[in-house]
Amino acid sequence: MSTAKETKTAARLSVAPMMDWTDRHCRYMHRLMSSNALLYTEMVTSPALVRGDARHLLRFDPAEHPVAVQLGGSDPTELAAATRICCDVGYDEVNLNVGCPSDRVQSGSFGAVLMERPELVADCVAAMIDASTVPVTVKCRIGVDEQDPQQVLPAFIETVHAAGVTRFTIHARKAWLQGLSPKQNRDVPPLDYDLVLQIKRDFPDLHISVNGGITTLAQARTFLDAGLDGVMIGRAAYHTPDQILLGVDAEIFGGTDRKTTHQVVDEMRPYIERHLSDGGRLNQITRHMLGLFHGRPGARGWRRTLSEGAHIDGAGLEVLDAALACVQDQPQTTASA
Questions:
Q1: Across the chain, what does the average pLDDT equal?
Q2: Do residues 247 and 48 lie in contact, with contact meaning Cβ atoms separated by under 8 Å?
Q3: Which residues are catalytic?
């Protein structure tokens, strides 16, 4: 388990929580690619943990540290109970989702809709902090619908900070709760990075990370150089992990070691073998590996072979070998962002 200081340092570059993507298999691979980046789970709802049978969603490999769990909810008592569960499991951080715009989240009165209820968010995080042995953080939007972010976001940060939160990740877009799908909410509302930078200037003692539309390590460095404490990257880290995560330790954390993509595939083999021997299916892991050779000769064959073969009953490492043969003879240099 990582210390609060180590988790805070790791947040200099983090991989965003992404539903259906950042499961334990994805995170294990990402950790092989970066020893330092902070990894997040998919969002897990507090009702599912406290009243349901969803504790299996909290499974993770000890190799994933530092790793944070993201909770969704709006009931302080229930969130406190869920936080205790997450701490008992061994997570390094508990994050509250105040940014997801999906209809399902709205109907549960949590996610981005909570931007309209900062006092409730403050009550939630206060209860979570009382129940937690690790840092409690918040991921939010700059506002929702017709709110004026210039007014709403500073007031939101101030209110939630007063309840004890010192680390915020800000998705630099509004969320439109009516009229846009969750997918559109990731692209359509304009980005306002300047507002996030202003928040850091207004709250210099807080740890502020920016999220949204960041696709390269060069962009990430620009934000860090501008004074932000961290950068969270989502889809680019998932779809082109070699271009993001293989360079993170050297370019963001000052390390020197740099693996090749082929090394990552080789290091995944024992993990895949254990998963298969436990009754798991190959595609549960390889679906997260499709982007490993993005943009390189043989990448199409790699993706096609895995996509067509990994879901078949009894599929094993021979499918991975066949996919790797498509790129095996290609240059093994790591793409730079």
A1: 92
A2: no
A3: 100
